[in-house]
Amino acid sequence: MSLYAMDRARLGELYEALGALGRVYLPTRKNGASAFLPYGEEGSEADLSLLLCDKSPKDLFFPQSEELVKFRLTGAEIALQEAARQKEPFVLFGVKACDLQAIEVLDRVFLAEPVDSFYQSRREHATVVALACARPAESCFCTAFGIDPTSPQGPCDAVAWLTESALYLRPCTEKGETIVSCFAGFAPADEKEVAAQQAAARAVLGRLPYGQLDLSRFGEASDELALFDHPAWEELSAHCLGCGSCTFSCPTCQCYDIRDYDTGKGVLRFRCWDSCMYKDFTMMAHGTPRKTQKERFRQRFLHKLVYYPKNNGGLFSCVGCGRCVKKCPANLHMIRVAKALGGEPRAQ
Amino acid sequence: MRELTNAICARAKELLQSGAAGRVLGWAPGEFFYDPTPGVFSEGRLNELVYDGFTAANLSKYCIAESQKEGKVLVLLKPCDSYSLAQLVKEHRVKRENIYALGIPCEGKLDMRKARAKGVEGALSFREEDGQVVFETLYGEVRLAREELLLERCLCCRGREYAGVDETLEYALPELPKRDRFQKVAALEEQTAQERYAFWRGELSKCIRCNACRNVCPACSCVQCVFDNPQSGVAAKANSTEFEESLFHIIRAWHVAGRCTDCGECSRVCPQSIPLHLLNRKFIKDVNELYGEYQAGADPAARPPLVNYTPEDPEPSAVLERGRA
Amino acid sequence: MPNDPLIPMIGVVTDVRRDTPDVKTFRVNALTGGKNFAHMPGQCAMLSIPGVGEAMFSITSSPTNTEYLEFSIKKCGCLTDWLHRLEAGAQLTIRGPYGNGFPVEGALLGQDLLFIAGGIGLAPLRSVINYVLDKRERYGKVDIVYGARSADDLVDLEEIRASWAHAPGVDVHLTIDRAQEGWEGNVGFVPNYVRELGFAPTATALVCGPPIMIKFVLGALAELGFARTQVYTTMELRMKCGVGKCGRCNIGSKYVCKDGPVFRMDQLDELPDEY
Fold first, then answer.
1. Which helix (H) or strand (E) element contains residue C14?
2. Structural domains of chain C, ranges and CATH numbers in brackets
3. Do A31 and B202 count as a contact with CB atoms less than 8 A apart?
4. Which of residues 247-306 of B touch A (CB under 8 A)?
5. Mean of the per-residue pLDDT values for chain C?
6. CA distance linking residue A27 with residue A33, whole number of Å
7. Is the N-terminal amide bond of A149 cis, ω within 30° of 0?
């Protein structure tokens, strides 16, 4: 589809105009951290030049905690009331290629039969605008998963490029077209500046230390049992603290818990993020698998590198965003694990 | 730093050979220059040990598990880390007889988050030159003053004293800044209750309930945390009410009050950059003001003020006076 | 039906039967009478008491029972403790059916069937047994080996004696771990009893019970010449969603709630040993 451009200095006007399509979520700095937050919140600063937000956009589709159903108990009787689904449209603007692929990973879980209607209602009401990367970081390894961060592909309605002076936008769905039509500042543009930015970024991508991380031992055709029994797990996991910083920062981790909360007036059943790294994850009265942190650690990584790909035509459920590289208190991240299990990175 | 690392390895090797310990708990290299991980080394692998500006992890917490294993482990402790181990020993959380604590000098650790915030993008390597840190990056060289990159805790370095170590390794290093660690706490105290509430809500509402602060904290040594009790009515991973993440951190601060050594690991590891150490420092400041200077972990014989009674203790009404202020 | 797999329906407990000191069987109907849903033998359902918890239980009644669903539940944790306090008339929530079930309309057709159960492990097999007995002509010889710690711990003993023992082409072999007064049947552990009874390895075995029993039963069956492809079992793991999304019951690339709970042993052999 066609390419449009607008003056970068008018981004504020664009955000205002996008308000016509629904609430606008942008990469935003607030209180020393970054996340996709609604435009215009007090004390926040939208910033499209952020390489990656601390928090991934997954919680806009799969919130950390959400109500499923309310129960009212009277004597022996139970009355239930389903929680409302998303009804308001919203715009998610500035999703990087890795996070966009992560939405695809989540879609294949939540939109598979039986469909999760809470997730689905948010997906259906979202207009997603991807944003190409101009300055990748050393911790980026999305290219190892076949992702091109200079030309995001996946479940989005438009792709944008931010250059020194302009924001370029290429709609790829009808919803994407509405972005162009709702703001008068867009004008048809040629590819020149975008192509130049892509070429410059690609030159940097070629120099990423783990851009070519060897994943050949993993994926759909991998030897699941050999990797499971790999001797490296013992040492790799030895100093894992069993916290959930990797899981909760990860754009694809989607395990959840369902819990009840007694409000005093009834019972609220809610769903919340959970982590396979937590020791109570598989605990039950009858007996508990994965009793040690080594087993829990192994589960998380094998799920991303082997189990998920086997169920999804080879698609990895790691997208190489590098958040775990930056967030793990003990620095036990995906690159370390993939290298220990799968050999050294290929020669540059 | 290479010279110091060599000195540490040499002494560790002597200690292993003398039978003082069977293995070493130190830092192993990561995949980048800034991501070393705690590691256990046999004599043959000591050459892999790293010690530089990024080996910030306080290894005391790992002593809980390590000391339960067979044989003696030599643990490398920076001065501030040694207080954490001493406190754990005081609380009978580690088998001290299975630990050989070697105090190693520290010139302050670096914060990659600060470097990134100061424009270090795509960092591939670093070196230190005359009080400066030089990063080679995908986009060229960046030089920053070392002091600008120090972890928050290192800006208020407590000094070169160790607590309860078996021996110390002498090595001359430049002095660290000694800023007043209570400055920010005092500023918060000056605020109105509403302002303070807004500050803490702003910070704590960023919490993603990952429990990294708790799990890394040497003072959080409970075998089963109250928040992990399925019968407690709260989930350790999500908020059932809007205020719950605040309660989690407030309760945690109370639980470690009087025991927190101010090692700063909680703030260092928080993926959401919440200045959690301020909660602990508020408690430390209050304890100091109400009961006299007290440093958890410093004196194994001292009765901690919060579990001790003396006729000089402040009256409960002190709370009223302070609340009014 | 609710609009989401996680939203339950209301079920009414219409009968509670005490089977053993720690097992009760609950009959559940929809609010409007009848069953909340149809199922296949071996499938499960999520039962919950709001405010207490929700957990997966195998449906013990046969699909051929058109009036109600039944669940035999052993008291062993918080939720089951609460369930045991329910009396007829109480309501609970129910959603399902979940899982694959036993291939009663596939691989099991025309086969001789050897059911081996221990303790509460009879619960999921009872559904299959009654299904098979109701469609007797579709299956070959049926042998049921069932054991428990004591005679008091045998679930559904009345039904076993009154109905199964007299069904055509069915042999029931009961055993208890230790001799007790008034017990005239076999005494000994299930695996040994299976070995003593010496079944021909032409049958298909369906095994459910405590993990340790399953382990030794598999050994006994192997000695008798049963191939791994002739043995089915059903698994129990902690579950929250029941539809293969929450990640809890994930073993290798399988989800026990969705791809199981019934697995053939050769299928389990391909999975990491994590159950």
1. strand C9-20
2. 9-98 (2.40.30.10), 113-234 (3.40.50.80)
3. yes
4. 265, 268-269, 271-274
5. 93
6. 10
7. no
Asked if B273's CB is within 8 angstroms of A336's CB, the reply is no
Dist. CA C32–CA C46, nearest whole Å: 19
pTM for the full predicted model? 0.94
What does the pLDDT look like over A286-296, one tens digit per residue? 667 888 899 99
B307: which 2 tokens? 């579990």
**Predicted pLDDT at B240:** 61
Q: Which amino acid is at C188?
A: G
Domain chopping of chain B, boundaries: 1-108+155-179, 112-149, 180-325
pLDDT one-digit tens code per residue, A133-166? 999 999 999 999 999 999 999 999 999 999 999 9
- Residue C124: cis peptide before it, omega within 30 degrees of 0: no
pLDDT in tens, C111-168: 999 999 999 999 999 999 999 999 999 999 999 999 999 999 999 888 898 899 999 9
Domain ranges of chain A: 4-342
DSSP string, A139-202: T--GGGGT--TTS--SS-SEEEEE-SSEEEEEE-SHHHHHHHHT-TT-EE--SHHHHHHHHHHH
Residues with Cβ within 8 Å of A287's Cβ and at least 6 positions away in sequence, in order, are: C211
Q: Does A249 touch chain B (CB under 8 A)?
A: yes
**ipTM topping 0.90:** yes
Confirm or reject contact between A313 and chain B (CB < 8 A): no
Q: How many CB atoms lie within 10 A of CB B325?
A: 7
CB–CB of B215 and A257 under 8 A? no
Q: Is B24 on the interface with A (CB under 8 A)?
A: no
Of A238, A242, A249, the CB nearest to B40: A238
